[in-house]
Every structure is written in structure tokens, then in C-alpha cells.
Design a protein that fits this description.
Elements (H helix, E strand, L loop, with lengths): L8 E6 L4 H5 L24 H11 L4 E5 L2 E6 L1 H11 L8 H11 L7 E7 L1
Antiparallel strand pairs: 1-4, 2-3, 3-4
């Protein structure tokens, strides 16, 4: 798990081009987290960062640790929608940042996979 020396812990969607070969075991670790293409997942009552890392570690999400403080999973837009619904199910309403994330995911091509990134800085 991430040490206490990290000040920021973000979850976002990145492009799959660097992560897919790594997750499939055809490349070594990355030097930096994948580039961000989405809004950052907004704060929630749940620790979304820890949940993503834990799901990757258990194999619930297909991914792996790609750097000392970065975990990536390959996910489809449908999987992203399900995760967002689950992570924010207890929220009273969609704040603007969550609405922006939902709109971003809705615009993704359905036949592609993307990187779900949990990165600490």
C-alpha cells in the first residue's frame, strides 16, 4: 500500500496505450503514471484510491502495480460506469465534478478499454 509520504492520491482515466502491454506482461514497469485523459474522480465518502488498489491486488480489476506508487487496470466504459455508480452511490446528488466525469465516460467509445489509474504523488 502507499506510504504516508505521499500527499496526493488521485484516481483518473488514462489512455491504454502504455498500460495494456504492461498489464498483459509484455512490458516492464513505467517510469511515471499514464497520462490523464479524464477529470479526476472527485472526493467521496469512500476511499476510492484504496478501493481501486485493493481490487487490483485481489484480481477483481485486471491490472497491476506499474510503478512504486501507481496502479493501473484495464476497464471498459461499462465497467467505469458501474464503478462510478458504486463509488458514489451514497452521495446525495451529483456535484459538478462528478457530473463532468459521468459525461466524459458516456462519450468514450464502447469498444475500447481504458486505464483506470490510482496514482500517489
Amino acid at each position: 500500500m502507499v506510504g504516508r509520504g505521499h500527499r496526493y492520491r488521485d484516481v483518473y482515466i488514462g489512455g491504454p496505450d502504455l498500460v495494456a502491454p504492461l498489464v498483459r506482461g509484455r512490458a516492464d514497469a513505467l517510469d511515471a503514471p499514464p497520462y490523464r485523459i479524464s477529470p479526476i474522480f472527485p472526493p467521496s465518502r469512500r476511499d476510492i484510491f484504496a478501493e481501486v488498489v485493493e481490487r487490483i491486488a485481489r484480481g477483481v480489476l485486471v491490472g497491476r502495480q506499474t510503478d512504486a506508487a501507481c496502479w493501473c487496470a484495464l476497464v471498459s466504459p461499462d465497467e467505469l460506469n458501474a464503478l462510478i455508480d458504486e463509488f458514489y452511490e451514497d452521495e446525495p446528488e451529483d456535484p459538478p465534478r462528478l457530473s463532468a466525469l459521468r459525461r466524459f465516460v458516456a462519450a468514450l467509445p464502447c469498444d475500447c478499454q481504458f486505464s483506470l489509474v490510482a496514482a500517489a504523488f
